[in-house]
Write a structure and sequence with these properties.
The protein has 106 residues and is mainly α. Helices cover 75% and strands 0% of the residues.
């Protein structure tokens, strides 16, 4: 039925599915052959925190690049942005196996 409203949990699942389709190139790297053994929920929380730190570093670096008008400073800004985005995508959308894989095997 087209006029049906979705419940909150259905909306969350729908949005997660949409974002997983958008970010599939990143998720595919970490979810391919990813064993979920050794997963701990704390790993996902730390990954989320690291992603936020990288994005904060992106903003701070960008501010100083603009203030100093040095175009070479954009290289670390791009690096921090990519690292932060990957961390957040895997932490928020990735499977347990992807979280384990991003931390590496021990």
């Amino acid at each position: 039925e087209t006029g049906k409203l979705l419940s909150h949990s259905e909306q969350v699942v729908f949005m997660k599915t949409v974002f997983r389709k958008i970010f599939w190139p990143i998720l595919r790297i970490f979810e391919r052959n990813a064993p979920s053994q050794g997963y701990r929920p704390l790993n996902r929380k730390i990954l989320l925190f690291v992603g936020i730190l990288f994005l904060m570093l992106t903003g701070i670096s960008l501010y100083f690049v603009i203030a100093a008008a040095v175009m070479g400073g954009l290289i670390p800004v791009i690096g921090f942005l990519v690292a932060g985005t990957v961390c957040l995508v895997v932490a928020l959308l990735g499977s347990d196996g992807a979280v384990v894989k991003i931390w590496g095997s021990r």
